[in-house]
Design a protein that fits this description.
Helix 3 packs across helix 5. The protein is of the alpha+beta class. The mean pLDDT is 94. The protein is 25% helix and 25% strand. The chain has five helices and nine strands. The strands form two sheets. The protein has a six-stranded mixed beta sheet with strand order 1-2-6-9-8-7, with helices on both faces. The chain has a three-stranded mixed beta sheet with strand order 4-3-5, with no helix packed on it.
Length: 214
């Protein structure tokens, strides 16, 4: 997949999930029409659990502690909330040429984590197994969830990177279709290293650099 000169960086604050999806739908239409360049939007959401159409009901929380919202992206159920960096990618793949966009995102986020001083890896999914797409620690904890949609050659949705998320929320349901998966955050990893966690602005800047957004 060839590099594209301009990925527009859009920094937002906390945006309700439904509002973000509405804005993203508009960006996709405008990108398809050539009205805007490729775009990376960085933001956060109030607490919400989103889930895809193939998520079994048994994997969702029995008691509603936060809202449940069905989505049209790839992937299963995941949690969004304070302390998490959301990245929505609106990219024209026809201009970027052939390539694995999900692997490109994984590798970019791994580079961003390395820039922040954290070793992370991607994992290949065994045939017939539940998807292991995302960014992981070497000891098998999941730091970043990725779920994207491609329609008409343009991507939407993106990734969720835990900076200082409340990890207890991830224990209330089956995360990403992976029973027993352990989620982690940059704050938890930094504490294990005996150093301060990076602040959100540092993480935003590292992610934007790694994905070529400015």
């Amino acid at each position: 997949m060839r590099a594209v000169d301009c990925v527009e960086r859009v920094d937002l604050g906390e945006v309700p999930y439904e509002d973000a999806v509405r804005d993203m739908t508009d960006w996709v239409a405008r990108r398809r029409a050539g009205e805007i360049p490729d775009r990376l939007a960085l933001l956060s959401h109030p607490p919400v659990i989103t889930y895809g159409s193939r998520t079994p009901p048994a994997e969702l929380p029995a008691g509603l502690t936060v809202p449940l919202v069905p989505v049209d992206r790839g992937g299963q159920a995941t949690y969004h909330g304070p302390g998490q960096l959301i990245g929505y990618l609106v990219l024209n793949l026809r201009e970027r040429g052939p390539g694995d966009i999900v692997r490109w995102v994984e590798n970019g986020l791994i580079a961003a984590c390395a820039d922040l001083g954290f070793e992370t890896v991607r994992r290949d999914t065994p045939p017939g197994a539940q998807s292991l797409v995302g960014v992981w620690t070497p000891d098998g904890r999941k730091l970043v969830s990725i779920g994207m949609r491609i329609r008409g050659g343009v991507t939407s949705h993106g990734f969720a990177l835990n900076i200082s998320s409340d990890l207890v929320e991830f224990t209330r349901f089956v995360v990403c279709g992976l029973p027993g998966v352990a989620m982690t955050s940059l704050a938890e990893l930094a504490a294990e290293q005996g150093r301060p966690a990076p602040v959100e602005q540092e993480v935003r800047d590292a992610v934007a650099r790694a994905l070529g957004a400015r």
